[in-house]
């Protein structure tokens, strides 16, 4: 064995032991102190829908047909003809609030809903998870949000959304209905997905004025958000939202779209080093950001803050059924950590945050939908983390 290999092996063993030590230390501390909650709520403003999940052989393509099921079960007389479909409550924001609430964070939803059965189902789900509904604006004049999700055996999915009353939540709407709601918040969580960008931007700026940290989930790309068919808002509003948030989370595809807009002559390579470099540049560029998170699907995620940058590998011990809510579950873990402990003050704590979030995402891939299972709890999450092997990679500059 060469000296180089020997040293590398020793370093990897030391690094793994150190990472595991910090994780177990966090687990013990969280077990002891998680019941002592911070004052205030995680207030989430964004998508809350009833999802209709449809299992298909192949994802729908324009001007084509696709079979609903991979077998002939729907033709058997003893099987329901709807066995290929599921109806679940969900939505980007409601999903991540459900995971945070199961990790003992107090949460509330800012939303607009109808008196229809869809709205009733969403509000009932909130009550099951202990998510406060006092700030939901309900009217018989509104229609609640819904979507159709096509997914296949690989967990891949395509989503068609009907925004309903969520599309009404522009600057004037949120100013009228939610300005005072922020007084009860310790964290604001919102999205670029269904809410008009003017409404998102207003809440982010108000939170900043009140000294409330904010988390922005960039669920659709700049191109998609600003195209004529969607028209959530303008490109300027999109960029201003990024500048106004304390934490910006986006997927690799959204990051690639952002690179094309911000740095036209550059290309984001699909490598961990390239994503880390992009995250560091974006963190410096965004005026209010304390943390940038880029999720890389089944590979893992990159978390960057002023204390450093880490790569956290995904937990791949769950059979993938549906990936629809994985990113939402991930953010739920992020919110729960921030709620209990605030922003990480070291790379080791940044790593722990990523581990908690990654575990939530992995568990979410094992079933259809994005809401946390009601039997998922802080205790089961901590027990799971105790038994997990920590895999993380630090850039050479941080070694």
UniProtKB/TrEMBL annotation:
Keywords: Kinase, Transferase. PROSITE patterns: PFKB_KINASES_2 (PS00584). SUPFAM superfamilies: Ribokinase-like (SSF53613). Residues 89-370 form the Carbohydrate kinase PfkB domain. GO terms for molecular function: kinase activity. The keyword Kinase applies. PANTHER family: RIBOKINASE (PTHR10584:SF166), SUGAR KINASE (PTHR10584). This is Carbohydrate kinase PfkB domain-containing protein.
């Amino acid at each position: 064995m060469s000296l180089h290999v020997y040293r590398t092996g020793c370093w990897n063993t030391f690094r793994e032991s150190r990472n595991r030590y910090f994780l177990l230390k966090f687990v013990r501390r969280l077990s002891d102190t998680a019941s002592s909650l911070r004052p205030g709520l995680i207030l989430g403003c964004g998508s809350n829908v009833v999802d209709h999940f449809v299992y298909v052989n192949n994802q729908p393509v324009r001007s084509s047909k696709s079979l609903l099921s991979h077998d002939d079960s729907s033709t058997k007389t003893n099987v329901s003809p709807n066995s290929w479909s599921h109806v679940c409550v969900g939505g980007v924001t409601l999903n991540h609030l459900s995971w945070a609430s199961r990790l003992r964070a107090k949460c509330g939803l800012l939303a607009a809903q109808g008196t229809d059965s869809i709205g009733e189902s969403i509000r009932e789900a909130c009550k099951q998870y202990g998510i406060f509904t006092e700030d939901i604006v309900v009217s018989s004049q509104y229609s609640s949000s819904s979507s159709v999700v096509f997914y296949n055996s690989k967990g891949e999915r395509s989503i068609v959304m009907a925004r309903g009353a969520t599309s009404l939540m522009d600057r004037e709407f949120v100013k009228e209905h939610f300005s005072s709601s922020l007084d009860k918040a310790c964290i604001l969580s919102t999205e670029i997905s269904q809410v008009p960008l003017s409404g998102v931007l207003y809440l982010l700026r108000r939170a900043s004025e009140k000294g409330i940290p904010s988390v922005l989930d960039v669920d659709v790309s700049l191109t998609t958000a600003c195209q004529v068919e969607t028209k959530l808002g303008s490109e300027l509003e999109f960029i201003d939202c990024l500048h106004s948030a304390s934490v910006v989370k986006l997927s690799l595809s959204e990051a690639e779209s952002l690179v094309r807009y911000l740095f036209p002559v550059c290309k984001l390579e699909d490598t961990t080093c390239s994503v880390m470099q992009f995250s560091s540049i974006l963190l410096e560029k965004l005026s209010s950001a304390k943390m940038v998170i880029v999720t890389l699907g089944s590979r893992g995620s990159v978390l960057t803050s002023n204390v450093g940058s880490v790569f956290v590998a995904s937990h791949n011990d769950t059979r993938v059924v549906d990936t629809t809510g994985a990113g939402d579950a991930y953010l739920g873990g992020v919110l729960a950590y921030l709620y209990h402990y605030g922003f990480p003050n070291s790379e080791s704590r940044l790593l722990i945050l990523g581990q908690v979030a990654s575990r939530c995402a992995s568990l979410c891939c094992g079933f259809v939908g994005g809401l946390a299972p009601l039997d998922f709890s802080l205790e089961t999450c901590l027990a799971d983390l105790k038994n997990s092997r920590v895999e993380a990679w630090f850039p050479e500059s941080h070694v």
